[in-house]
Design a protein that fits this description.
149 residues; alpha+beta; four-stranded mixed sheet; 6 strands; 26% helix; globular
Length: 149
């Protein structure tokens, strides 16, 4: 996939301070989502994180990128070292950075077109388990916006 940028000043704090999380903290957080990341290594160097290993598919790769990138203190995630077990022809999702005043409904209308706000459930489902409620998004957070079938 490549290298992705994130706002390091926002996101879930994995440590009790404002410093960038360590590799072990990020790996623990990643594994807590049960995305099948047992074959993924996390290497953090300050706010820059490199992922290496193997995951099931494109969707899983996108989710682990966001799970790590949306951690407080992470500014960049490099996924070049990750391979896919099922390298099908899945279309890559768009990554969208939440702006002040955004709701999933508004994001769906922006990304899928006017009158498509009800597709906000597609966005919510695409970001589970990192999102636990459609109302708990915050400015600076990056979300997966999958293509519509």
């Amino acid at each position: 996939m490549g290298i992705f940028s994130f706002l390091e000043s926002v996101g879930k704090k994995l440590t009790g301070n404002d410093h960038a999380p360590k590799s072990a903290d990020l790996k623990k957080e990643l594994d807590s989502y049960n995305l099948g990341t047992d074959k993924v290594d996390v290497n953090a160097d300050g706010g820059k994180v490199s992922l290496k290993g193997q995951v099931k598919d494109q969707e899983t790769l996108e989710k682990i990128t966001l799970a790590v990138g949306n951690a407080h203190g992470v500014s960049q995630v490099n996924t070049d070292g990750v391979t896919l077990e099922d390298a099908g022809r899945e279309k890559e999702a768009v990554f969208y950075t939440v702006k002040p005043g955004d709701t999933l409904w508004k994001i769906a209308e922006t990304q899928y077109g006017k009158g498509q706000g009800a597709k906000n459930t597609v966005i919510f489902e695409a970001n589970k388990p990192m999102l636990t409620s459609p109302d708990k998004i915050y400015p600076g957070q990056v979300l997966r916006i999958p293509p519509l079938s």
